[in-house]
Write a structure and sequence with these properties.
Rossmann fold; binds magnesium ion; alpha/beta; 285 residues; ATP binding; transport; globular; binds adenosine-5'-triphosphate
């Protein structure tokens, strides 16, 4: 279980949040993907990421694996959604397709108003750099660069000027202000993953995708990262889609989607540890 003393308490945590610590950052948050504002009265939220009829086959011949077998889903803007399911159910394959890191054999992916399917490699790369953030289990930081340079690398590659006020908000929220000159090797695993989170958010992406971001972390560090991801949605207007098979990690999210054998096997609103365990048991995990 994540250590509740770190502020990493799922769902029930009503402690300090980024908004209260950093003033009116909500107003400074990026417009939600493809969004008309959500009207008062509970109309459906804008869709940040949509996938239709996704099919992906890994390998060929006798060893071919149908990792995605007709997946159609909408991920709402300004929400924290988790993708869950047994090992091998297609979670990473789906996330990579949603993020434009891999192509589908059939089906379509849309982020905001942009259809990824059919974009040229160059256009897709540009779109990813400008509009998408990633957090991976293995951090993927460059070891010879400082934390600050790692955080800003994507913006530099995209030829974009950093917004220093926003940089300060993100770095402050992640508690990294005193670590910016350190290289990854001089940081703990949790600090490295927080650098990776800052790198993902500093460009104000339409969506942040995370694949098992706490899989390499101890429970305390994992709780800090999950709390930050949740607060980035609640207080900064970020949209987050995270893969996990950890019910505690899933309980930080607003909603969950369950995969089994490359298909959608269920949905959960406001997942809790018991509801996730029950859903996973039903999916044969
Ligand atoms: N590059 C690949 N070549 C061949 N098969 C692959 C490849 N990548 C994934 N697969 C297979 O596709 C299926 C789905 O894999 P995927 O990595 O999406 O599962 P996952 O749900 O993320 O699992 P885990 O929880 O273990 O990370 C699995 O059967 C896997 O063995
Ligand atoms: Mg995976």
């Amino acid at each position: 279980m994540y250590d509740s003393t770190t502020g990493g308490t799922p769902r029930s945590d009503t402690g300090k949040d980024i908004g209260s610590r950093y003033g009116d950052v909500r107003g400074a948050a990026p417009a939600a993907a493809g969004s008309a504002a959500v009207p008062a009265g509970g109309a459906p939220r804008a869709v940040a990421v949509g996938v239709r009829d996704a099919v992906k086959v890994h390998g060929s011949g006798d060893t071919a694996v149908r990792a995605l077998d007709g997946v159609s889903l909408d991920f709402p803007a300004d929400r924290f959604t988790v993708i869950m399911g047994p090992s091998g159910s297609g979670k990473s394959t789906l996330l990579h397709a949603l993020a434009g890191l891999d192509t589908l054999d059939a089906g379509r992916v849309r982020i905001g108003s942009t259809e990824l399917t059919g974009l040229s490699d160059a256009a897709l790369t540009r779109f990813r750099r400008e509009r998408v953030g990633f957090v991976f289990q293995s951090f993927n930081l460059l070891p010879t660069m400082s934390a600050e340079d790692n955080i800003l690398l994507g913006l530099h590659l995209a030829g974009r000027r950093p917004d220093r006020d926003w940089f300060d908000v993100v770095v402050g929220a992640l508690g990294l202000a005193s670590r910016l000159r350190h290289r990854p090797g001089e940081l703990s695993g949790g600090q490295q993953q927080r650098v990776a989170c800052a790198r993902a958010l500093v460009g104000r992406p339409q969506v942040v995708f995370a694949d098992e971001p706490t899989g390499s972390l101890d429970s305390r560090s994992g709780g800090e990262v999950l709390t930050f991801l949740r607060d980035s949605v609640r207080d900064l207007g970020q949209t987050v889609v995270m893969v996990t098979h950890d019910p505690v990690a899933a309980s930080y999210a607003d909603a969950g989607v369950l995969l089994a054998d490359g298909r959608v096997a269920g949905r959960l609103e406001e997942p809790t540890v018991p509801s996730v365990l029950a859903a996973l048991a039903g999916a044969g995990a």
